[in-house]
Amino acid sequence: MFHFHLVFVFPSLLVRASRGRSSFISSNFISRYAWTSRWVESKHKSDYGKFKLSAGKFYGDAERDKGLQTSQDARFYALSTRFEPFSNKEKPLVVQFTLKHEQNIDCGGGYVKLFPSTLNQEDMHGESEYNIMFGPDICGPGTKKVHVIFNYKGKNVLINKDIRCKDDEFTHLYTLIVRPDNTYEVKIENSKVESGSLEEDWDFLPPKKIKDPEAKKPEDWDERAKIDDPEDKKPEDWDKPEHVPDPDAKKPEDWDEEMDGEWEPPVIQNPEYKGEWKPRQIDNPSYKGKWIHPEIENPEYTADSSLYAYDDFGVLGLDLWQVKSGTIFDNFLITDDEKLAEEVGNETWGATKEAEKKMKEQQDEEQRKKQEEEDKKRKEEEGDEEAEGEGEDNEEDEEEEEEEEPEKEGEGEEEETEGPLKDEL
Ligand SMILES: *[C@@H]1O[C@H](CO)[C@@H](O)[C@H](O)[C@H]1NC(C)=O
């Protein structure tokens, strides 16, 4: 049988894993210089955002961490690459890639789509029919999930579970495994975050059982567990008014019936009042329990043992929208070998993540120091130029002013001169 040990590493070289691990590294390296010829930008719209090859602002390895980076804000992106077509019938399918939202993403897609080979890449767009969509989607604090969408008989079916994605600025490894026994697994950083059965976690098929439309609750079906005790009777002296005139109240001496009307004593709560009488509750002798609607086999249901299978994969696409750009996609891998995927994950994301983190921490530290020095310098300069003792207030005003539109600058200056004057008064 044809093994689709497809190692499809950034940016586009398709290598059979059986050629050995070393080809993975070398193809990875070589292909970085020819990526533009292997990826096709859709012309469906004229204003798609551009991808560029970049390792970003911080990385673990300047060469190996180069990936496809979105470079323009508030754009749709539509880029794809073709590989030797294959079917995943009777084989596992592993889709894996790394993703880095180094821009601290606010809203945007971070997923890949696997298309059949029949896709016209130059016309790829949001509605182009795909087989599988997999990867993170972030929008505001409300949406931070990993999509796993399968096309089933022409319909896109979303997973019923909520898989949370990473939302920081570092590179993360995302893996989807779909197996011929119709189970699946989603991994982040080579660790399982979700797994189960395709049939249970997606609504591919109508439900196996449905409520019998013929069945009806019998009219005499008694669902009351307790009933009023027919023996229990209200005591004759039960009923007493809730409020009674205050027996201690006395008509004021200066009450003038002509002026004030007839005197009535104020009412008070009746201490003998017993409230509403309710009969004692007893077990209902004809209680039958809650009626359960009987279920029957759903005539619309037909089992499908090949939910996982697709005849034809041929294109991997990045079809997404991003508000703030800067996301880097890298280390794409499609294979039928779960272990190989884990190894590749280790050799790519695993090998550079620590160094990436370190570089980011250094940059943050340098940035912090620089900011500190700038603040200090500004303070000193302001101290020289302006009246002593007002440094702090002025600085705050100025910082706000810098962020404002140019035409507002006048206002800002006014405020600034106003501040110290007020203080002096
Ligand atoms: C990947 O790395 C982890 C952590 O070091 C290790 O436990 C695991 O065995 C590795 N997997 C493979 C397939 O090499």
Automatic annotation (TrEMBL):
Keywords: Acetylation, Calcium, Chaperone, Cytoplasm, Cytoplasmic vesicle, Disulfide bond, Endoplasmic reticulum, Extracellular matrix, Lectin, Metal-binding, Repeat, Sarcoplasmic reticulum, Secreted, Signal, Zinc. Disulfide bonds join C107-C139. Residues 254-263, 382-418 have a biased composition (Acidic residues). It comes from Sphenodon punctatus (Tuatara). The gene is CALR. InterPro entries: Calret/calnex, Calret/calnex_CS, Calreticulin, Calreticulin/calnexin_P_dom_sf, ConA-like_dom_sf. Pfam families: Calreticulin. GO terms for molecular function: calcium ion binding; carbohydrate binding; complement component C1q complex binding; integrin binding; molecular sequestering activity; mRNA binding; nuclear androgen receptor binding; nuclear export signal receptor activity. This is Calreticulin. Residues 1-20 form the signal peptide. GO terms for biological process: cellular senescence; ERAD pathway; negative regulation of intracellular steroid hormone receptor signaling pathway; negative regulation of neuron differentiation; negative regulation of retinoic acid receptor signaling pathway; negative regulation of transcription by RNA polymerase II; negative regulation of translation; peptide antigen assembly with MHC class I protein complex. Residues 197-280, 345-425 are annotated as: Disordered.
